[in-house]
What we know:
The protein is built from 8 helices and 8 strands. The chain is an alpha+beta fold and 259 residues long. A hairpin with a 6-residue loop joins strand 4 (110-115) and strand 5 (122-127). The protein binds zinc ion.
Amino acid sequence: MRGFGLAILLIVEFASAAAAEERSALDALVRAYPQQLAGYDAMDLIWRDGTRMPLSDRHPSILDQLRLSYTAGISPAALYPQNDAGRARNRPFFDKMYGNCWKGEVAPSLVPVVWLPQSWGRTVRITSVNGIAERLTDISEELDALPSSLRRYLYPSAGAYNCRVVADTGEPSMHSWGAAIDINSAYAEYWLWPRAASRGTIPPEIIEIFERHGFIWGGKWSHYDTMHFEYRPELLTRHTLSVEPDVLHTPAVENAVLH
Length: 259
Ligand SMILES: [Zn+2]
């Protein structure tokens, strides 16, 4: 009986620790989008306009997209790909935030940003929601001050807004919400088409600047995409859920992997 009681106690402790991690991740989500999100309760995410969205009704759910921890920074450990944090995205969440481009809902929020005005000077289109266009303008100016040996990785940009799905999943790309940018494809490495060249060729100075403004780098994904940056500030606060990797490698989550 004593062993049984101990097992129950451990299960209860595990459950409460998991619940605390979920709350921590949801706190980070609400903090990351203060103009849009008001809070959450046991079942729903609550938007400022009163909309409620279930936290775990589909795959990937709102909680699923917070489960993997993105390691910010440019330490060797941070730059070594560990997981696919950020690649599973809850479609209703991002459609609500940025609109559905197939219904023409994203275009009204798009604005042109001059990419590296001193070096390249052409425009990319990105959403103004969440101040992303202003953030990208700041990023662009900081990048433009880097030495030319680093700037060559940044232009021509391979594009920002693009109303498309990811080829192998059929799910919307973050580009479809106007919240991602691809830098120079000439130096890019993509998991589907690995090259002989070594990975991680993007200078860390570039990654550091993007992350400081709320953009995660696709080069840290197991399914790496080294020219890709997307606005995901909720993953840069290091309050994401930490669960065992095999919990996440369920077919539903794997199939939800996006570009
Ligand atoms: Zn991309």
